[in-house]
Design brief:
Helix content: 55-70%
Largest sheet: none
Radius of gyration: 22 Å
Number of strands: 0
Shape: elongated
Number of helices: 9
């Protein structure tokens, strides 16, 4: 995600809505959304959670309960603000959970429970929030001049490219055995190893975060329709580790 562009978009939206933003609105404290000082970067997480909460509420109010003086451009801006707030909150919460996983390293049960929430954010809330921003941004840009809209069109272009890649990916590369691997003892070993390598390629830090890695592999297998015998229940993270034994993922 290009946070510099998102930061510019926040400024643009709040400039359009400045008449409706109370003085000191985004500085209002919310104790329930304060990250522990023991966490590195706690101020950033607290600020993002707080900004997301206030932006969501203000955007929602303006969009669903609009003031009579709100212009069409400002109405579109309020929808974008609401979605920017949701994304800020989900993204900060997601990164906080990753920090908690690092802290609870060695406590596998706690890591797995938190990993479930991480996977849900990765697969549901974050993609949905980004998609909602793209849709509302597309409507908002119609009210901007070409010069004003230019910095933000990249976000729409990036979204369209990702959708095209997903639509074109109709094969199952995870079924191909990697010649570097030992013989798979179970048919699902090969796709488990494939998804592990894909995840590590996207995030090399997972090589040292095995609990998070296997939790993500479980989700990838489930999304691909690969489950335990009977095809109903997903694999357990502990079982996945067997497939990765003596396997090079780097």
């Amino acid at each position: 995600m290009d946070w510099w562009i998102y930061k510019q978009l926040r400024s643009q939206i709040l400039t359009d809505l400045r008449k409706y933003v109370p003085d000191g609105y985004f500085s209002r404290e919310i104790n329930e959304l304060t990250a522990s000082n023991t966490i590195i970067g706690s101020k950033y997480f607290t600020d993002e959670l707080k900004w997301g909460y206030h932006a969501t509420n203000l955007g929602r109010t303006l969009f669903f309960e609009p003031d009579a003086s709100l212009t069409a451009r400002q109405t579109a801006a309020s929808e974008v603000l609401m979605n920017l707030g949701l994304l800020a909150g989900f993204d900060a919460y997601y990164k906080l959970l990753l920090k908690f996983i690092e802290i609870s390293k060695g406590q596998e049960e706690d890591s797995i429970n938190i990993s479930d929430a991480v996977i849900q954010l990765e697969k549901q809330q974050l993609p949905t929030s980004k998609n909602n921003i793209h849709q509302s941004l597309n409507r908002y840009l119609h009210y901007l001049s070409d010069q004003e809209a230019k910095p933000f069109k990249f976000l729409l272009k990036d979204s369209h490219q990702k959708q095209s890649v997903q639509q074109d990916n109709d094969i199952n590369p995870w079924d191909t055995l990697d010649p570097r691997d030992p013989d798979p003892k179970q048919p699902w070993y090969t796709p488990a190893r494939y998804f592990s390598r894909q995840l590590v390629r996207d995030d090399p830090t997972l090589l040292t975060k095995r609990d998070i890695l296997v939790a993500k592999v479980v989700q990838s297998l489930t999304n691909a329709g690969i489950k335990k015998r009977g095809g109903i229940n997903p694999f357990s993270p502990g079982t996945i580790k067997k497939a990765l034994s003596n396997v090079s993922l780097g």
